[in-house]
Design a protein that fits this description.
This protein has one domain (2-205): Metallo-beta-lactamase, Chain A (4-Layer Sandwich). It contains 7 helices and 13 strands. By secondary structure, the chain is of the alpha+beta class. The protein has a 6-stranded mixed β-sheet with strand order 6-7-8-9-12-13. A 5-stranded mixed β-sheet has the order 1-2-3-4-5, covered by helices on one side. A two-stranded antiparallel ribbon has the order 10-11. The chain has helices spanning 36-46, 60-63, 66-73, 85-89, 91-97, 169-180, 199-205; strands spanning 2-9, 14-21, 26-30, 49-54, 77-78, 117-120, 123-129, 138-142, 147-151, 154-155, 158-159, 188-191, 197-198. It starts with a strand and ends in a 7-residue tail after the last helix. 25% of the residues lie in helices and 28% in strands. Residues 192-212 are annotated as: Disordered. Its cofactor is Zn(2+). It holds the Pfam family Lactamase_B. Keywords: Hydrolase, Metal-binding, Zinc.
C-alpha cells in the first residue's frame, strides 16, 4: 500500500510530502522546498529510503531544496512539465528575493506530461498536467488510496494564484474542473499549503470553483 506523510517546510509552510511503498519502504519526496534536515530526519524516523524527487512546479517554496537534495543523495528529479523551465532557471534569484537559503538551479532527470505515470517501489501514481498557477504544473494522483498531491492548483477554500509570470486564471479553472474533478468527489487532496480537503467539498463550497 502507498503511505504518505506531510511535512510543512520553509517560512511559507509549504506541504512537502514523503510518499512510500510499504512493501519495499522506498520513498519519493514531493516538493522539497527547503528544511532538508527535517525531511531527511522524517525519512530516517519512518525507516524509508529516499529514491526520487517529484516536483509539482518550480516555485521557490516547492523546489528550493531540490538541487541540493538531489546532489546530496544522488536522487533523480522527476517533473514538472517543461513549461516551468524558466522558473527553475530563476531559482537562485527567487531564493534571494524571498530570503531563502541559496537555491541551486537544476535540470530535471525526467520531464512529466499529462497521462504519464511515476512509480515508487511497487506503487504507481498517475500524472496530470494542470497549468494555470504555473505553465508546467503537474499533480500526482494515487487512485489506489484516493489521494491527489495537487501543489498550488487548489486549496481548501481557495485556488492557486495566477498573477505570477505566465499564470493564467482560465487555464487554472479548466485544470481544476476538467482534470481534478473527474478523479472523484471522495478523493482527498494534499495541497501545497494548508489543510487537506476533498474534491467534493470544494465543488460544493469553494467560492472560486464551487458549483462547477
Amino acid at each position: 500500500m502507498l503511505h504518505y506523510l506531510t511535512i510543512p517546510v520553509t517560512a511559507f509552510q509549504q506541504n512537502c510530502s514523503l510518499v512510500w511503498c510499504d512493501q519495499t519502504m522506498e520513498a519519493a519526496v514531493i516538493d522539497p522546498g527547503g528544511d532538508l534536515e527535517r525531511i531527511e530526519s522524517a525519512a530516517r524516523r519512518l525507516g524509508v529510503s529516499l529514491k526520487a524527487i517529484w516536483l509539482t512546479h518550480a516555485h521557490i517554496d516547492h523546489a528550493g531544496g531540490t538541487g541540493e537534495l538531489a546532489q546530496r543523495l544522488h536522487l533523480p528529479i522527476i517533473g514538472p512539465q517543461e513549461g516551468d523551465q524558466f522558473w527553475i532557471d530563476g531559482l537562485p534569484q527567487q531564493s534571494a528575493m524571498f530570503g531563502f537559503p541559496p537555491a541551486l538551479a537544476f535540470t530535471p532527470t525526467r520531464w512529466l506530461h499529462d497521462g504519464d505515470q511515476v512509480s515508487i517501489g511497487r506503487e504507481t501514481l498517475d500524472v496530470r498536467h494542470c497549468p494555470g498557477h504555473t505553465p508546467g504544473h503537474v499533480v500526482f494522483h494515487a487512485p489506489q488510496i484516493k489521494r491527489c498531491f495537487v501543489g498550488d492548483v487548489l486549496f481548501a477554500g481557495s485556488i492557486g494564484r495566477t498573477d505570477f509570470p505566465q499564470g493564467n486564471h482560465q487555464q487554472l479553472i479548466d485544470s481544476i474542473t476538467q482534470r481534478l474533478w473527474p478523479m472523484g468527489d471522495d478523493t482527498v487532496f494534499i495541497p501545497g499549503h494548508g489543510p487537506e480537503s476533498t474534491f467534493g467539498r470544494e465543488r460544493e463550497t469553494n467560492p472560486f470553483v464551487g458549483g462547477t
